[in-house]
Design brief:
- The chain has one domain: Aconitase, domain 4 (Alpha-Beta Barrel), CATH 3.20.19.10.
- It starts with 5 loop residues before the first strand and ends in a 16-residue tail after the last helix.
- Strands 4-3-2-1-5-6-7 form a seven-stranded mixed beta sheet.
- With 207 residues, it is α/β, with parallel strands linked by helices.
Amino acid sequence: MRPFHCEHGVLVPLDRSDVDTDQIIPKQFLKRIERSGYGEFLFQDWRRDASGAPRPDFVLNIPEYRDGTVLVAGSNFGCGSSREHAVWALSDHGFRAVVAPSFADIFRNNAVKCGLLPVVLPPDQVRQLLDLAAECPGVVGIVDLEEQTVSAGDLRFHFEMDPFERRCLLDGLDDIALTLAHEAAIAEFESRRPSWMPDLSRVEVGP
């Protein structure tokens, strides 16, 4: 997992609440088995019309926001189904952080495990960021996980983060990496396992 320390990127204002995962990545694009390639279809139904043509009024189709890496959105972001593909789509598009007053629990958990930083700020502070991003297209925001701050223009806000989740994001540790950090202890434990206990290494695989 790519570590997260400090992201300097254009703020992208998505001034909508209850953005669900089917809006983030519609169900027809969930057939892929890889984690990559979903960014092209991010917010597909909002981003393009029925013919596939870009909707000029959608934020990601506006040049100043197109390459932004910090998404600012309304409350209850990522509600709906538990599809991890929603996080993959946001990350594949290039987003490194999402700032919102609240997140759906499963989406937030998926985000942390995939290296996408979910930042929770009070509604009034999120509103200030949304207004700034809308009034000054292309304004750069700084999301600093080490300092736990979000800054843009004259705005600077502090956010809280669970210490364990913060450490995982700073060090780029997903669940597999966390397990491998104890590889020596696991190997030592396995070396002492009684011979009568199941051991997959001794299972013969048939033709």
